[in-house]
Amino acid sequence: MTKEFVDVLIIGAGPSGCVSASYLHKNNVRIKVVEKTKFPRLVVGESLIPRVMDHFAEAELLESLDAMNFEKKLGARFIRGEEICVFDFSKKFGEGWDWTWQVPRADFDNTMAQEVIRKGIDLEFESEVLEVSFEGKKSKTIVKDKDGNLKEIHANFIIDSSGYGRVLPRLLDLDTPSQLDPHSSIFAHVKDINRPEGEEGTQISFDILETEVWLWVIPFSNGNTSLGVVGPTDFINSLSENKDNAEALRNAIQKSDYYIKRFKGTEFLFEPVKLENYSRAVKRMYGDGFALTGNSSEFLDPVFSSGVAFATESGMLAAKLYLKESQGIAVDWEVEFTAYMKRGIAVFTTYVKEWYTGNLQTLFFHQPENPEVKEKICSVLAGYVWNEENPFVKKHDHVIKNMAYLLNMQKEQSPE
Ligand SMILES: Cc1cc2nc3c(=O)[nH]c(=O)nc-3n(C[C@H](O)[C@H](O)[C@H](O)COP(=O)(O)OP(=O)(O)OC[C@H]3O[C@@H](n4cnc5c(N)ncnc54)[C@H](O)[C@@H]3O)c2cc1C
């Protein structure tokens, strides 16, 4: 068996792994990335939020992504029957990027991975991690390459960015049930032949079909659009008696008064994919000689498009902390990694939960709009969930519930 020796082994070449890799390489760390599949590969997660731009800029990946002319995402629209709520990232509280992209992830991730290779990083596709063993902080990883050959990779540190592959959570028994209710999704891409001109055609939208059920519409600059339905697993399963994903997604589109005409009869570009009970959590996010980043650690819910932003946030942070430690500076992983990530996760967990209780929807669709409330929520939706100057971050655990309660009371007391 051949042997390789590196400082850091990164498992997975999604956004989390690529951001980590690029940052460490820039800082002269000897790394290797192993990726199970051959890119481009299909993956869900096409609506980004502005916070990711900070990470792509810092990892020096922004320029190559910008050259791809992906559809710009300037905000997000939420639809509930006749009611519409549009968030514009340029009108958010505090500092930060006010735009990002909506992207076919196959092309997006491939662009990043090719840029990582162009920088001289050793990224090996079709190489799957099978086993990992630790001796103190040092690890030995067994990888199978595309010809079926096994090799040993010895590393001082592993950044596990393996997404739903969840390599270390599986091997080290770190999985734990998510605190969110079981939800599932079915999605596909369509050729958007009835796409209207202008903003209406390109705006990313979330259409609420029932309080807990929603449809995403994510138009891409290549003329295709991603359509996905999300809801409680029982509901998603009830969309097709025969467990036919295409029929289920068509039935969901039928329920959208807003989009039924635009997408009636359009062919799916691939067999719709079902992602069942997608929320994930772990017992711990790091250990001796490793850190878990992106979906390999936590995944909450797609409703606020936070998945890639958490993947790049944690990928970048793990890389920085490894670098610090390798320079002989002590790192408190519990405080600097877990507690930091958990603060952001807690804010989004509240928003996800309050979305499905309907409380957040009460705030979104209340008329007249309150611009001060809206700009603060907008900052959260842009991913700036560590900005404690924002009361909608700092007091997330009760502000939405309390405001929704008051608005509902007001409504009861003054019916039109
Ligand atoms: C229904 C649904 C909708 C979503 N919508 C959005 C959205 O709109 N916006 C958003 O930001 N996020 C969204 N997400 C979340 C998003 O998909 C993820 O958060 C994001 O892709 C995580 O990136 P990552 O780099 O951690 O993992 P990934 O992008 O999944 O990359 C992990 C890589 O690791 C590789 N790998 C796995 N196992 C191994 C192994 N054994 N050896 C080597 N390599 C391995 C995989 O092949 C993969 O390429 C959604 C998720 C779901 C379930």
Automatic annotation (TrEMBL):
GO terms for molecular function: FAD binding. Residues 6-179 form the FAD-binding domain. It comes from the Bacteria. Coiled coil: none annotated. Pfam families: FAD_binding_3. This is Flavin-dependent dehydrogenase.
